[in-house]
Amino acid sequence: MKISFLCILIAAIQPFLWAGAAKFGGQRSGTRYDNRAPRDTLAHLSGWPQRANWAQQNSFEAFPIFAAAVLMAYAAGVPAALIDFWAVCFIVARFAYFACYVANLATLRSLVWFVGVIACVRLMCAAI
Predict the structure, then answer these.
(1) Minimal CA–CA distance to 91: which of 35, 13, 2, 31?
(2) What is the residue-wise DSSP string for the chain?
(3) For all residues of the chain together, what is the average pLDDT?
(4) Has residue 90 got a pLDDT over 90?
């Protein structure tokens, strides 16, 4: 069970990592980061830093569903090994999602995004 809880922590941290990549990439490509208007700065990125920012936004959107799925499964008494398996699948899919997004591999990105969705749905269905 500790593995799945660790996965919740990793999923919570991922958006901040992706935001850091977007900011770093923007600075390297000549976009000066303005901490007084961070959203405006990120909105004006292009190329892979822009896609890293989009991955960050999607990671914030995916997190509550994943956390709820793990906690639902835990509360319903789903076997820990099953919860851990799907939680790790989600995390691996989210790292692959980021890599595909930054590399501009749209179709593969959508496929690994769907793997993450399947992991969440599988956890929720196991809890029902």
Answers:
(1) 13
(2) -HHHHHHHHHHHHHHHHHHHHHHHHHHHTT----TTSHHHHHHT--HHHHHHHHHHHHHHHHHHHHHHHHHHHHHTT--HHHHHHHHHHHHHHHHHHHHHHHTT-HHHHHHHHHHHHHHHHHHHHHH-
(3) 95
(4) yes
DSSP letters spanning 41-56: HHHT--HHHHHHHHHH
Spatial separation of the C-alpha atoms in residues 119 and 45, rounded to whole Å: 31
Q: Does residue 1 have a pLDDT over 80? A: no
Residue 89, Cβ neighbours under 10 Å: how many?
18
pLDDT one-digit tens code per residue, 66-88 = 999 999 999 999 999 999 999 99
The angle that helices 2-28 and 80-102 make with each other, rounded to 10 degrees, is 10
CA-closest candidate to residue 109, choices 95, 89, 122, 120 = 95
